[in-house]
Amino acid sequence: MRRRSFLKMSLGGAIGAVALRPNSAAAWQSRAPADSYAALVDLTRCIGCRKCEQACQQEHDLPLPMKSFEDLTVLDNQRRPDAARFTVINRYHSGRVNPEGQLVADYVKVQCMHCQDPACASACITGALSKTAHGAVHYDVNKCIGCRYCMVACPFEIPAYEYHDPLTPRVMKCTFCEQRLREKQLPPACATICPTEAITFGKRSALLKLARRRLKEHPGRYIQQIYGENEVGGTSWLYLSAVPFSKLGFIPLPNKPLPKLTETLQHSLFSYLWSPALLFTLLSGLFFFNRRKQLQQPENSAGHAGGDV
Amino acid sequence: MSGHPHSHSHSHPPVALRRPLWTPGVLVMLAFMAAAAVTLVVRFTGGIGAVSNLSNARPWGLWVAIDVATGVALAAGGFTTAALAHIWGRHRYETVVRPALLTAMLGYSFVVLGLLVDIGRSWAIWKPIFFQNHHSVLFEVAMCVLVYLHVLYIEFVPVVDEGLRDARPGHPLQKLVAAINRRLRPILWIFIVAGVVLSCMHQSSLGSLMLIAPTKVHPLWYTPLLPLLFLLSAIAAGFPMVIVEATLASSSLGTDDEMEVLTPLSRFTIVLLGLYLALKVGDLLWRGSWTSLLDGTTQSNAFLAEMGLGVVLPFLMLLRAKVRRSRRTLFIAALLIVGGVVLNRINVFIVAFTPPLSTTPYSPALGEILITCGFVAALMFCYRLAVTWLPVLAEKKEKTP
Amino acid sequence: MRKTSQAFQRCVFVALLLAVALLDPQPEPVRAAGAGAPTDWLAPGQQQALERARQTVPLIEAIRREGPLRRREHLHDLGLTVKAVKTTYFYLNSPLISAVEDHYTGVRFNHGQHAAQAGDCSVCHHLRPEQDVAYSPHPETVRCSACHQQAFDERVPERPGLKAAYHQRCIGCHKQQRSGPQVCTDCHLKQVPDHAKLVKLPEHPDALQVTAECLRCHEAQAHDMLQTAHWLWRGPSPYTQDRSREVLHGKGTTALNNY
C-alpha cells in the first residue's frame, strides 16, 4: 500500500535525520585569526591632542568637522564615533588628583575594537562584514544591503550609518587602516601620528606581552587589567589605564564571544537542515496518516476536533 | 484547497463577496495610504534619516518591530490553521483557513515591502541570495521569509483559480491558472507541510535575532529561550488572530460569524497560551530576572503590561466557557492576545533595546508612523479587494430555527 | 554701499595677512627660502645642528640595564655633568619623525640649558648601549635617536619610536615642572602647506579675486579679524588737516585706506 509505505519511509527518514544530526555543531569554534595585528592604547600616555582624529579624517578623506582639530573645547562633551568620524577622544575626570590636589584628566580614544570574534560579522546577513587575517573587521560595501543588524549586534555601539543618503548609504566605522597597511606597509594613521605613542601597533600576541610587561614594571601606574584581552572573546584593540575602566566609559562585557550563543543555536538546529527535514518528514507522515483515515471514514471527519465550547 | 478533493461538506462555501468597494472605511484606508505614499517619496529622496528617528545607537525602530516582526507574528494564523485543518486533519476548521491564508500572504508581502523601506539599499535586497552568511540568524530568517512568501502564493493558487473560474470562465488567464492548479493539486501537500516547517524555522529565529546583543537587551526579555518564546507566542497568537479577523470581517462585511468554528478554536489557544505563560514565568524565575519586575522603569511597566494584559488576562478570560461562547467577549480576549504579541515584539525590539553607551533615546517619528499605518491600511485594502473578487469568506448562513 | 565697504574690508584683510606673513619671524633659515629673508647668514652652530638632525645612526639593539640611582652615580663618577656638555644647540627634526607625516616643523632644543637645569644627565640619558658605538664620542650619553628610531619595531617592541621618546620625556617633565611649553605650538611651528599648490588664481588677478581666494579657506580668520581692534579701532586723529577737532576717525568709521 502506497500510503503505508510512505509512512514507513517518513519514519525512516525521521530516524535518519536524527542520526545524521551533526554533533560537531555543539562545539563552537572561534574563527579568530591566528596572530593578527592589534593596537594597544596606553591611556596613561594619551594627552588628548586629537591628532589621531585628524589623521583618521585625512586618511579616510572624511568631511572636515565644524570645529578644527586644534579646538579642545569639543572635549567638554562626550562624543561617539559616527559616519563622519571613525574615532574620537573623550575626556574623563575620574577623581584622580595630582600632588597639588588638582583633578587630572584621562583621555580615552574610542573606535571600532575589531573584535576577535566580531558580533557584527556573525550577524551580517550577506557577510559584508568580515574579520580579515590582518585583524581588521572589514566592511565590503558591495555586499551590504543596509539592514543595520551589525549596528544592533555591536556591543561597543560602533558602526554608524549614513542615514541621509537615500539610495546608497554605507555603514561607517574604523577600518584599522587595512588598505594603508596592505599598500604602504604602514601602521594605522592614528598610531603613526600619535606623538606619545599612546597607540602601539603590532601583533596581538606581542602587544599582550608588552602590556603585561608594562603592568608588571609599573604596578603603580596602571590598574591590573588589559581591557580587550578577554572582553567578548578578545578584541584587536587593547587598553591600559590608570583608573578603573568603568570610570572611563568602558562597559563590563562577558568574556564569551557574542556570536557563540546564536551560532551554536543556529548550527545545532539547522546544520544540513536536519531539523526542518525531520519536521517535514513527521508532518508529511501525519498528513498522509490523517488523509488515509479521512478517506476511510469521510463522514466522521468533522467529528474529532475536540468537543464544542 | 489542499490536495484534498472537496469531499468534506462545506456547509457554507467561500464565495467572492462582490460588495460595493468604496465604503467610508475604504476611503479612510486610502487616505492613510496617500499619506504614506508622500512619506515614502521623502524617504527615497532624503534618506531614512529624513523620515525617521533612527540613529546609530538605535538602528532598528518601528519598521522592524511592527512591519517586520509583528507582521510575521500575526501572519502565523496562516500556518497554524493550515496545520490544524490539513495536517492534523481537523477539517471542520477549513472555513477559516482561506482568510487566514490570505492574511498571511498579504502579511508577508507587506513584510517584504516594509523591509524595502527599512533597509538602506532597497535595490540590493536580492544580495543575500548570492552572498550568504550561514552564521547569520538574519540570513536564515530572510531565506525562510523569501521561500515562505512564494509557498504562500502557491498555496493561494487554488483560490485564484476558483475565483477566476466563476468570474472569467474561458479567459486565457483563467485557463492558464486552471492548468497550473491542475498540475499543482497532487503536490500541494508539499507546500502546505513546507509552509509549516518554514514558519517554525523563522518564527523562532526572529527571536534569536536579539540573542547576539546580550548587553543591549533588557534582562526581562533577554533569555536563550527567546526563539522558543517567539515560536510559541506566534503559534498561540495564530488562532486569536483568525478570531479577530473573522469577527471584524463578519461585522464589517456581514459575512458569517463562524462562531461554531471560532469557539472550539479558542480552546486550543488556552493550551498554547498557557504553555507560553508557564514558559515565560518559569524563565523569569529560572534566570532570576523577576527581581526587576517592579522597579518602575519603562521596561518593567511595559513587561507587566505585555504579560498582564496580553497573556494573563485573556488566558483567564478564555478559561470561562461563557467568554468563549460570546462573540463579543471572545473577540475581546482574542484582541488582547493579538495586542499582547504586538506589544511583545515592540518590547523586544524597541523598549528592551537599551544600549548602555549611547544615551540617544528613540521614539518613532511621524514619518515612521505614517509609513507603518499606510502599510497596514494598504494591507487591509488588499484584503478587502481579495475578498470582494475571490472566494475567501463565506456568506451568512441561513438562520436555522 | 555695503558691498563696496565689504570689498574694502576684504582688501584690508588681505593686506594685513600679507603683512603678517612678511613680518612673521622666520624660526630658522631653512624654512626661510621665501622672499626677503637673508639666506647667507646662519646662526652659530646652526649648520652643524641641521646636519645632525638629518643624520640617522644604526639602531642600538642591546642595552645595559641599571637602576636609575645606579645610573646617576655611574654618570657622576665618570664626570659626565653639565660641564661635559659639548653641544648647546640641537635642532630636533630627524627624518625618522617626519617620514610618514610632517605636520610640524622641527624643535629648537637648548641642550645646554636643559642640562644645566636638570643637573643630571641620567634624566634623559637613562640607558646606555651594551657595546661602545663608533659614532658616539661617549657611549654613556648617545643621542636619543640611537636607540629610539622607528615606532613599533618588532625587534624592540617595548621601545618607543623617536617621536614618542621625545614627547614622553618633554611632556612628562614639563607637566611635572608646570613651566615651559605646554601645547604643541609652544615648541613647533605648524608646517604651513605649500600655498603655491593651494592657491588657484587667474593670470593677472585683481584685488577682489585675490581676497576671495584667501577667503576660500580662511573665512573664519576673516571674521575673527573683523572683531579685533585692528579693525574696530576708532579714536582721535589730531594730525589730519582740518579735522583736528573730530575725534571719531578710524578703521571702524570713516577711514577708507587703512593699510
How is this structure best summarized?
The complex is a heterotrimer of chains A (309), B (401) and C (259). With 309 residues, chain A is an alpha+beta fold. Chain A has helices at residues 2-20, 51-60, 119-123, 149-153, 178-184, 189-193, 204-217, 259-270, 274-296, and strands spanning 37-42, 88-97, 103-110, 129-131, 137-139, 160-161, 171-172, 199-203, 237-240.
Give an account of the 3D structure.
- The complex is a heterotrimer of chains A (309), B (401) and C (259).
- With 309 residues, chain A is α+β, with helices and mostly antiparallel strands.
- Chain A is 32% helix and 14% strand.
- Chain A has a domain at 37-118 and 153-263: 2-Layer Sandwich (Alpha-Beta Plaits), CATH 3.30.70.20.
- Chain A is built from 9 helices and 9 strands.
- Chain A has a 3-stranded mixed β-sheet with strand order 8-1-9. In chain A, strands 2-3 form a two-stranded antiparallel sheet.
- In chain A, a hairpin with a 5-residue loop joins strand 4 and strand 5 (137-139).
- Chain B has one domain (14-393): Formate dehydrogenase/DMSO reductase domain (Formate dehydrogenase/DMSO reductase fold).
- Chain B is built from 15 helices and 2 strands.
- Chain B is globular, with a radius of gyration of 21 Å.
- By secondary structure, chain C is mainly alpha-helical.
- Chain C has a domain at 43-187: Cytochrome C3, CATH 3.90.10.
- In chain C, helix 1 crosses helix 10 (207-226).
- The longest helix of chain C is centred in the N-terminal third of the chain and has 22 residues, at 2-23.
- Chains A and B meet through helix 3, helix 4, strand 6, helix 8 and helix 9 of A and helix 1, helix 2, helix 4, helix 7 and helix 9 of B.
